[in-house]
Design goal:
The chain has 444 residues and is an alpha/beta fold. The chain has 16 helices and 13 strands. The protein folds into two domains: 114 residues, Alpha-Beta Complex (Aspartate Aminotransferase, domain 1), CATH 3.90.1150; 243 residues, Type I PLP-dependent aspartate aminotransferase-like (Major domain) (Aspartate Aminotransferase, domain 2, 3-Layer(aba) Sandwich), CATH 3.40.640. 44% of the residues lie in helices and 13% in strands. The structure holds pyridoxal-5'-phosphate. Pyridoxal-5'-phosphate binds next to α6.
């Protein structure tokens, strides 16, 4: 019997001692050259967003408030599974004709068709003309990663991708590790808390011809500041002049306005555009169902590529499939089946859209409540930007020191760039938050 056997008290104690020794020992000692072949591996820094939850969970204060993570919360601060999703899930589970076989590399065809219609409209030119390739993806992040890998391997015009400043933190890592060269373009103008439209146009106008440009389809994360319809037309103009390749990231369709079609307006403007000689605008889209269907952990999304003609679309699709095959072979079936059941069933789809509008409505109401509470708390400065921004987040303008003050004194957790998830705010806690912000602005 080995000394590590835990079946007798004596050997159990020995095993526990050995475990303790392993936990305490610095990874160095033994004469054979070291304890682990991974000794050179450095500790990674905590993820700036997911790390916030770690700190929040360790905090024992009953007052604690997590405004860091971009997931919807109810007025009671709880995660929400939409009623339409619960019903669809039951249908999927009860469907005895379903099995657990692999699905094709491109995913569930019905899910792909419905996702494309949701993004581009039910009768889009690109779909009707056979120029649209759609592949199921591992939520938005997976779609960005597969799209990035495809572009790094097969897009000849440029390997540069321009990202807005600021942007969702993971864009840099996803595209950088795909092999693209990440470059910045101006987006947010801190003094006016508005879009730096002139800076954006100047930077994209100076981008190398053919470069890829990442555009948030709506509800820009982290700023909550979107271009106006007129400004989107200006962005399309410069994209066409420089022959840039737009890569849309749509993680919040329906969350900005509560209306799926309204939130797809910028994307559809580009998707239906024609350039010189009637050449269709080509683009990529990473679409996520994490927020708008509340399917976060199910990892449901799609990558769409609009090509200039069906022949190119076919070749592109074949290469994107190769990227999928090499990364994870084929996507998971359950979440996509649930999303398909919601979108395909008119009653469930209507119920989902009503629930989506209600989530967006609660977030808008929390914006107004926070501005009112800040006024009551006498917080110095103007806070109107909180109601003019849209989507899940507010870019409050709080400094890093003020955010640390909120965390250490008030147990309020947020990213240190001043971004708060409005979904984490409730009527019950809004005055506490406003008092804390007023204190931080005065004293931090
Ligand atoms: C702008 C943006 N893009 C993509 C994602 C990816 O989300 P997921 O991979 O959960 O779909 C997020 C999530 O927060 C996001 O904010």
């Amino acid at each position: 019997m080995s000394g590590l056997d835990d079946r007798t008290p004596a050997s159990g104690a020995a095993a526990r001692l050995r475990t303790l020794q392993l936990q305490l020992a610095p990874c160095a000692a033994p004469a054979d050259g070291g304890l682990s072949c991974f000794e050179g591996v450095q500790q990674a820094p905590p993820d700036p967003i997911l790390g916030i939850t770690d700190g929040f969970l360790k905090d024992t204060s009953p007052q604690k408030l997590n405004l860091g993570v971009g997931a919807y919360r109810t007025e009671e601060g709880r995660p929400l599974v939409l009623s339409a999703v619960r019903k669809a899930e039951r249908m999927v589970v009860d469907d005895a004709t379903r099995n657990k076989e692999y699905i094709p590399m491109g995913g569930n065809p019905q899910f792909c068709a419905l996702s494309a219609a949701l993004a581009f409209g039910p009768d889009s030119d690109c779909s009707r003309e056979g120029r649209l390739a759609t592949l199921q993806a591992l939520s938005g992040t997976g779609a960005l990663a597969v799209g990035g890998a495809f572009l790094a391997r097969h897009y000849q015009a440029s390997k540069a991708i321009y990202l807005p400043v600021p942007t969702w933190g993971n864009h840099h890592g996803v595209f950088g590790s795909a092999g693209l060269v990440v470059r910045p373009y101006r987006y947010y103008h801190a003094p006016t808390r508005a879009l730096d439209y002139a800076g954006l146009i100047a930077d994209l106008g100076a981008a190398e011809p053919g470069a890829i440009v990442l555009l948030h389809a709506c509800a820009h994360n982290p700023t909550g500041v979107d271009p106006s319809p007129e400004q989107w037309r200006g962005i399309l103009r410069v994209v066409q002049e420089r022959r840039l390749l737009p890569f849309f990231d749509s993680a919040y369709q329906g969350f900005a306005s509560g209306d799926l079609d309204a939130d797809a307006a910028a994307l559809r403007l580009f998707a239906s555009a024609r350039g010189p000689g009637g050449r269709p605008q080509e683009l990529l889209l990473a679409q996520s169902f994490a927020k708008n269907m509340g399917l976060y952990g199910e990892r449901v999304g799609a990558l769409h590529v609009i090509a200039a003609c069906p022949q190119v679309r076919g070749r592109v699709e074949s290469q994107v499939k190769i990227a999928v095959r090499q990364m994870y072979s084929s996507p998971p079936i359950h979440g996509a089946a649930v999303a398909t059941a919601v979108m395909a069933n008119p009653a469930l789809s209507a119920e989902w859209q009503a629930e989506l509008a209600s989530m967006a409505g609660r977030i808008k109401a929390m914006r107004a409540a926070l501005v009112a509470a800040l006024a009551e708390a006498g917080a110095p400065g103007s806070w109107d930007h909180i109601t003019s921004q849209i989507g899940m987040f507010s870019y409050t303008g709080l400094t890093k020191e003020q955010c640390i003050h909120l965390r250490d004194k008030w147990h309020i957790y947020m990213t240190l760039d001043g971004r708060i998830s409005m979904a984490g705010v409730s009527h019950k806690r809004v005055r506490y938050l406003a008092d804390a912000i007023a204190d931080a602005v005065r004293n931090a």
